[in-house]
Amino acid sequence: MAFKRAAMWLCCQVETFKTAKELQVSPVPVVPFYLPRSYRGAYHPWLHCILLNARKNQVEKATLSALKMLARHEMRHHWQRKNYREVCEWWDAHPDAYKRQYLNPVCWPEEDARCFAAGKAAPNGPLTVPELEALYSSGQL
Fold first, then answer.
1. Quick one: pLDDT at residue 93?
2. For 68-120, what is each residue's pLDDT tens digit?
3. CA 106/CA 127 separation, integer angstroms
């Protein structure tokens, strides 16, 4: 099991370097971490790293292609922070809306990261902060 965890970490770390070059951002370290069971990984914006779920059930289920997609998805969040900081900070400040809209294309950070990881273009750019505020205050987010 230790070998599989090390291989999992190495696969993600290599993919972050490839993706960083593609996105023209600095690579970030991949750190094994115990996250809630439903998470495979997460980008931590304040620590500038990707947290890779080290729980046994996540390691056993992981495939090479899933790990590569995870690394690409989380590196896209890193890129978003560099290029759309205000929009990302708005979503950070409204975790209730983020959780409700997580699977909805209006949650641009997730939709964009999912599309990028799958090799597709995101259908829309992000809403501006004033547009997000208007939707949120009217109860639409």
1. 94
2. 999 999 999 999 999 999 999 999 999 999 999 988 888 999 999 999 999 99
3. 8
Task: Provide CB contacts within 8 A for 20, sequence distance 6+.
Answer: 26, 27, 28, 75, 78
> Could you tell me which of 91, 78, 103 has the C-alpha nearest to residue 20?
78
Q: 57 pLDDT exceeds 60? A: no
Contacts of 91 (CB under 8 A, 6+ apart): 97, 98, 107, 109, 132
d(CA 80, CA 99) in angstroms, rounded, equals 18
Rounded Cα distance between 43 and 48, Å, is 7
CA distance 111 to 100: 13
DSSP 139: T
Cα 109 vs. chain centroid, distance in angstroms?
A: 8
